[in-house]
Amino acid sequence: MRISLVLLIALLSLAAVLSACGNRDREASGPPVGQEPDPPAQEDPSSPADPTEPPADPSPLTGLPMVSPGSPVAVAIGNNPDARPQTGLTGADIVYEIPAEGGITRFLAVFHSRAPEVVGPVRSSRPYFALLAKEWGAVFGHCGGDPELSRYINEWKVVDANEFALGHLFWRDSSRSMPNNLYTSVENLRKVPSAELPAPPQRYEFKDRSVKPEAGISIRYGKSYSVEYRLAEGVYNRYILQGSQAEPVLHVDRDSEEPVTASNIIVQYTTMRVIDSEGRLNIDMVGSGKAVFLLGGVYEEGTWKKTGTLEPTVFYDAHGEKITLAPGQTWIHIVSPDAVVKLIPPE
Fold it and tell me: Which of 229, 339, 233 is nearest to 291 (CA)?
């Protein structure tokens, strides 16, 4: 009994010693006496939580960052006096101005990098509009057209968005009179193909021009209609001179009231002829001919060439090299050989 008691006391003493050693080990692992423990690590508030987003890819049509990418869209837009001011032209990447019957012109606005919520007024079209839409692989928005249009749309396999068949993608603005009150949006027309269409090809390089820019250029389509582009803060504001107007009027967007502008102006000369009693035109879009350019303020002369119906139209400078565009919107004017085009002298 005495031996057991002695053994128990010895075991309790050994346990106490071991416990004290363990406590000393734990104390040694903490901070030195008199020193506060380090605070927990915190994120530097000056550092962003997420890595910086890479810049958006440049548009193949403007050289500027993509804002609302998606299927390319081309829309036929009216330009008779009652159709003005239009909506959405300032959001286009490229705008064509092309003669129609009766001495008026009409626009084909090509959208890829941006997607305006309102575009119009949408008007009827002609085969050469469909051909240009096909060049860019775009959904073609329009409201009917001449008797031959449907045949060419089928032959060229254009992705068609005719209001006659797809009325739910368009709407009428009750504040304007027909036929100049039909509108659509880029996103509406992007619903037409079953899958997103490929991006348009990049045909030209883009670069800024460090030169003294020309003051502007005027383009006379006929006796009663001409347009001017005048330099303003690095771009060219567009003006329209119609009928008996004494002075050209600044072309503005109906909704934003912002000026319609261009970074590049291209004039493409080609032959055209009246083909019926309605005054409809046949415009030679395939072949080659003269062209003049105002690109980022630099005036040049050159040529255009389209080697086949489904081949692209390409513009060349006087040395036979592809032109270089300034970043921004491009306006392409298709004119007859007798159109009067001249530079505007500095004020």
Answer: 339
* CATH value at residue 145: 3.50.90.10
pTM score above 0.70: yes
Whose CA is closest to 131, among 347, 286, 288? 286
Length of the chain counted residue by residue: 347
Closest of 160, 168, 164 to residue 184, by C-alpha: 168
Cα distance between residue 70 and residue 146, in whole Å:
29
Q: What is the Cα–Cα distance from 200 to 194, expressed in whole angstroms? A: 18
Q: What is the dihedral of CA 267, 115, 263, 104, to 10 degrees?
A: 30
Count of domains in the chain? Answer: 2
Largest Cα span, the chain: 135
Enter the tokens of residue 198. Answer: 């490929």
Give residues with Cβ within 8 angstroms of 210, minimum separation 6.
Answer: none
Q: Measure the CA–CA gap between 226 and 179, rounded to whole angstroms.
A: 23
Paired with 109 in beta bridges are 75, 95
What DSSP state is assigned to residue 196?
P
- The answer to whether residue 182 sits within a structural domain is yes
- Residues 209 and 308 grouped into a single domain: yes
Ordered per-residue pLDDT tens for the chain, 347 residues: 444 444 444 444 444 434 443 443 433 334 443 344 444 444 444 444 455 666 678 999 999 999 999 999 999 999 999 999 999 999 999 999 999 988 899 999 999 999 999 999 999 999 999 999 999 999 999 999 998 999 999 999 999 999 999 999 999 999 999 999 999 999 999 999 999 999 999 999 999 987 899 999 999 998 889 999 999 988 999 999 998 888 999 999 999 999 999 999 999 999 999 988 888 899 999 999 999 999 999 999 999 999 999 999 999 999 999 999 999 999 999 999 999 999 999 87
b/e 223-232 (16+ beta carbons within 10 angstroms → b)? eebbbbbbbe
Q: Say whether both 154 and 275 belong to one domain.
A: no
- Backbone phi, then psi, for 266, in 5-degree steps? -120, 135
CB 185 within 8 A of CB 171: no
